[in-house]
Amino acid sequence: MRKILFTSIAAFAVIISGCSTKSTSVSGDSSVDQRRGGTGGSDIFGADGQINGVEKVYFDFDKFNIRSDMQYVIKNNAAFFNNEASGISFVVEGNCDEWGTDEYNQALGLKRARAVKEALSVQGVNADRISVKSYGETNPVCTEKTKACDAQNRRAEFRLAR
């Protein structure tokens, strides 16, 4: 089964080579850098199962609704999942900053992941392909004690379902 999956993924990656690189900032906060593409555009799957052809979705403090400035990210990610990656199942991972109790942040991360799943479904991505998971505050990408760092941790990421 793994050999079949690996062969399918490798063939898929060869077919869709040529993703572009795009760097944007979130809500005027230049400390949050998003990348579209990956390693030269030839492989959409990172070594850790992260999907290189999609952008992270960022959230406001203590919120799980999709911000207006993240609507284009949802639209672009949905197009990617509906076209270049139409055959894969994936996980939306909700993450939080360190503020709040562990239990609260676990629930908030799940609400963020579910909000992204719903938004992608509205854009035509089959909900059966999407799983959700919350890391709460346990998976930070930045550990500095700054507002800019906290903003980077309030996010949803995408990984290949295993």
From TrEMBL:
<keyword id="KW-0472">Membrane</keyword>
<dbReference type="GO" id="GO:0009279">
    <property type="term" value="C:cell outer membrane"/>
</dbReference>
<comment type="similarity">
    <text>Belongs to the Pal lipoprotein family.</text>
</comment>
<dbReference type="GO" id="GO:0051301">
    <property type="term" value="P:cell division"/>
</dbReference>
<dbReference type="InterPro" id="IPR006665">
    <property type="entry name" value="OmpA-like"/>
</dbReference>
<dbReference type="InterPro" id="IPR006664">
    <property type="entry name" value="OMP_bac"/>
</dbReference>
<keyword id="KW-0998">Cell outer membrane</keyword>
<dbReference type="InterPro" id="IPR050330">
    <property type="entry name" value="Bact_OuterMem_StrucFunc"/>
</dbReference>
<dbReference type="Pfam" id="PF00691">
    <property type="entry name" value="OmpA"/>
</dbReference>
<dbReference type="InterPro" id="IPR036737">
    <property type="entry name" value="OmpA-like_sf"/>
</dbReference>
<dbReference type="InterPro" id="IPR039001">
    <property type="entry name" value="Pal"/>
</dbReference>
<protein>
    <recommendedName>
        <fullName>Peptidoglycan-associated lipoprotein</fullName>
    </recommendedName>
</protein>
<feature type="domain" description="OmpA-like">
    <location>
        <begin position="46"/>
        <end position="162"/>
    </location>
</feature>
<keyword id="KW-0449">Lipoprotein</keyword>
<feature type="region of interest" description="Disordered">
    <location>
        <begin position="22"/>
        <end position="41"/>
    </location>
</feature>
<keyword id="KW-0564">Palmitate</keyword>
<keyword id="KW-0732">Signal</keyword>
<feature type="compositionally biased region" description="Low complexity">
    <location>
        <begin position="22"/>
        <end position="31"/>
    </location>
</feature>
